[in-house]
Amino acid sequence: MNPGVMTFNVLCLAVPFSVAILLAALGENFNQRAGVFNLGCDGIMCMGAFVGFMLPYFLKAGPMAPYGNLLGLAGALGVGAALGLLFALVTVTFGASQGIAGIGLQMLGWGLSGTLFRHFVGGVTGVEGILAMPIPWLSRIPFLGGVFFNHNPMAYVAFLLVPASWFLLYKTPWGLKVRAVGTHPRAADTMGINVVRTRYQALMLGGAMAGLAGAYLSLAQAKMFSDDLVAGRGFIAVALVYFGRWSPLGILGGALLFSIAQSFQLSMQVWGIKFPYEFAVMLPYVLVIVVLALARKARQLGPTDLGKPYNREMRF
Amino acid sequence: MKTFFKAALTAASIFGLFGGTAKAAPPASKVRIALIVESTVDDKGWCQSMHDAILSVQKKYGPNLVEYSHSEKMKPVDAGSAARQYASKGFDIIICHGAQYNNLVTEMAGVFPNTTFAYGTSANIGPKNVFTYTPYSEETGYLNGIIAGMVTKTNKIGNVGPVDGGDSARYTRGFMMGVKAANPKASVRVAFTGSFGDFVKAGELAQTQLKDGADILTGSAQQAIGALRAVAATPGQVLWVGQDTAQLNIPEGSRVIAAAGYNYAAVVETLIAKRAAGVKGGESLPLQFANGGFNFVFNAKMDPKVLTPAIRKAVEKAKEDLTSGKLKLDWKAIKL
User: Fold this and answer.
1) A110-114: long-range contacts (C-beta < 8 A, 24 or more apart)?
2) Which tens digit of pLDDT belongs to each residue from A185-244?
């Protein structure tokens, strides 16, 4: 096959592969920028995937069927925000260990979504889901059109959320508050910023985006739900925030790099290149670990109060 | 005379491989069977096939003679406690459905010598109270390969595998042999996700295969349903040959030309019969067409322009040859 065509195919596939981790990582960035890291991102994605799937699944035979996907997305956003709120309650109000609470949330989301699915649906089944929507004119641009403008609408939304996140974080008063409570909450408190409320808002927003990421998997990517649908992608999203140095643009780069590696390793197998597949499937993960190790100084760019509960009555 | 010879050979195979004795007879007393699986019993794949088989045996003999219980989502580290519970409660036969349970079963077999344990895919001859079972999946792969080879127009055929091991490895190689026999010009793009249960990754791999020009795909293990979903979501005449007959009965089944299925009922009945005869283990039970271990179903709703009489005839011929032993597949000779 022509190397140009091979490159084109790898890039075309990498874009939709990147959407779920990009959405979740952008949401996790808000959490971490506010000083809270949420390892439960994976569990929220599970619940988002479940709710996103369930609504169109149940509505498919009724008069609301045309709105099933939209309602599924809205439901996923809602359940994600609700779980973000729960996480905020546990970590911000009660001051629980963020790591342990995150693992608990991951297990809750994974277990609850699987249990509810078994109860309400039963076996593996699918929905029509959200179909690809090539953008007129733009999708016809040679090479770039196919790579960027021939995808699911959620992919466009995810990529538009990159500049939107950047704008929200760096160009709005609320974004300044988020960064302030993650960097120096006591100083922010002194300046009149409500640390608790800001962290709650950031966690709910992050949760909603993780829920949306899950819904992308069930509604746009797989068009089905199963217990193991998310398969640890939430943890990749958390790693991507470090990888991207807490910058939406950096996260986009990380998500694309991971997805290109994923697409490349799958393509490499399909092309019949003699390379042990056991190593090929590891490639994207190894790449993330290597880059994280090389970029250890990036930690200095992160929110300095990340992971620490804030209590205005206590001086550390 | 030839037909009689084939029938006699088949009967002899069934007798020899599954012990024959009293296989069709109902159990003399109540048999308690437990199943432990790593996925779920409705996964439209590996675990469901064993679950359905036990249910069919239970239905055949009635719940008064066959009691059944199962545990799902059991990782090998968790499965030990479940197996111990079942054995302590007096279950007669405990089936741990997966080669990953090898060590667990071997350990439990020593602790509970009166319980019959079974696990597969494995050809190990285990302790005296452990049976193993091995689907000779190269046979079903071969039939699917014939279909794929005859149907493809691009001469590019995709295989979405979980890992290159166990019955997946046999299925993949049998599939390649079938394609080659039917259409030497076609190439099979073999790729693995590295996971049995990552549906999204299986879908991504299927998309990669389709992008590369494949027009017919196959896949094995429970993850294959993700690949089938990707096939179903692709416009145009992109088709699938399946390794589980449950795939025919879902909406995506409209893209499935045919599917093979494990008939584990034969294994379950053999376990019951062997135990009743005093044999608690120490044998490996193969699943083949010859002993009724597989079934193969064409999609009745498939367009006859796709599933032509010539394809049906070629598949039936190959199935007949496999059943009679005329066709033997040296799957180990195929190098990826």
Assistant:
1) A110/A42, A110/A43, A110/A46, A110/A227, A110/A230, A112/A46, A112/A47, A113/A46, A113/A47, A113/A49, A113/A50, A113/A225, A113/A227, A114/A46, A114/A227, A114/B73
2) 999 999 999 999 999 999 999 999 999 999 999 999 999 998 889 999 999 999 999 889
What domains are defined for chain A? 3-123+148-301 (1.10.3470)
Give the number of other CB atoms < 10 A from CB of residue A145.
15
Percent of chain A with pLDDT over 70: 97
pLDDT reported for residue A287? 87
- Interface contact A266, partner B, CB < 8 A: yes
Composition of chain A by helix, strand, coil, percent to 5: 70, 0, 25
- Asked if A13 lies within 8 A of B250 by C-beta distance, the reply is no
Q: What was the pLDDT predicted at A297? A: 66
Q: At the top level of CATH, which class does the domain B2-136+263-287 belong to?
A: alpha beta
Architecture field, domain B138-242+303-333: 3-Layer(aba) Sandwich (3.40)
A124·B43 Cβ contact <8 A: yes
DSSP one-letter code for B294: E
**Distance between A286 CA and the closest CA of chain B, angstroms:** 15
What value does the mean pLDDT of chain B take?
A: 90
Section A175-187 average pLDDT: 95
Interface residue B203 vs chain A (CB under 8 A) = yes
Contacts of A218 in chain B (CB under 8 A): none
Instruction: Indicate yes or no: CB of A271 within 8 angstroms of CB of B212.
Output: yes
ipTM, two decimals, is: 0.87
Cα of B91 to nearest chain A Cα, Å: 26
Among A15, A2, A16, A36, residue whose Cα is nearest residue A206: A36
pLDDT digits (tens, 9 = 90+) for B213-241: 999 999 998 889 999 999 998 988 999 99
Q: Give the one of A124, A267, A278 whose C-beta lies nearest to B194's C-beta.
A: A278
Residue B240 contacts A, CB cutoff 8 Å: no
Residue B197 to residue A231, Cβ atoms within 8 A:
yes
- With a pLDDT cut of 90, the percent of chain A lying above it is 77
- pTM reported for the whole predicted model: 0.86
A194 reaches B (C-beta below 8 A): no
Q: Could you tell me if B55 lies within 8 Å of chain A, comparing CB atoms?
A: no
Q: Is A278 on the interface with B (CB under 8 A)?
A: yes
Sheet holding B66-71, edge to edge: B66-71, B31-36, B93-96, B116-120, B130-135, B283-287
The reported pLDDT for the residue numbered A292 is: 78
The answer to whether B293 touches B262, Cβ cutoff 8 Å, is yes
A49 lies within 8 A of chain B by CB: no
The answer to whether B40 contacts A271, with C-beta atoms less than 8 Å apart, is no
The two domains B2-136+263-287 and B138-242+303-333 share their CATH topology (first three levels equal) = yes
Domain ranges of chain B: 2-136+263-287, 138-242+303-333
Q: What is the pLDDT of residues B100-126, one digit of tens each?
A: 899 999 999 999 999 999 998 888 887
Q: Each residue of A76-112: pLDDT tens digit?
A: 999 999 999 999 999 999 999 999 999 999 999 999 9
Chain B residue numbers with beta carbons less than 8 Å from the beta carbon of A266 are 191, 204-205, 208
Decide if B158 touches A, using CB distance below 8 A: yes
